[in-house]
Model the fold of this input.
Amino acid sequence: MPGAGLDKNKVLATSHFIRDEHIPLVEEPIGATLLKAAEQFGEKIALVDGQIERAARRTWTYAELAEEARKVASALLQHFQPGQRVAIWSASSPEWVLIEFGASLAGLVLVTVNPAYLAHELKYVLRQSRAHGIILQDCHRGRDLGEVLQEVRAELPDLDVVIPLSTWDAFLASAQLGTLPEVEAGDLAQIQYTSGTTGFPKGPVFSTGG
Done:
């Protein structure tokens, strides 16, 4: 929870901070943590859109963020089964955050992909992670990411679903709200690839909690 157990008067003098072992670790899925935060901090601001090109910045309260994350989870489950790997190929955005929470609530494994990757790097990560689908930003720094994906699509037999972020409204409209799957703290949640400066990227895996 935000600010839980933090000493506001403590000054950090080093880059390495040893946690207070008297504060127990939270062992629960990230989606469940969001739902609890929504109950406790409902009308407080949780997320602000930092994209400067918009005339007015979008904001979400904790309650709104949780509600939309549930909708994202339901929309994802129209395309994927719990346990499947879904890649997100995009720069930071509110939609990225919503997909992260939605994937957790849906019991999916989120594969994070650097939007600067070239075609061969993208192919390696999607094949190595066995991604069943990808959600991608349409354009990043002048590059059409959809075109880059098409360069290697034929070499990705496991990739069945492609969702451009430009179709976000239609994607959300596909949600059929209902009961979401049970997600345990030890379930696989994310595969986060390294920069790959000394070879191909490595894909450390993270559980949903603990």
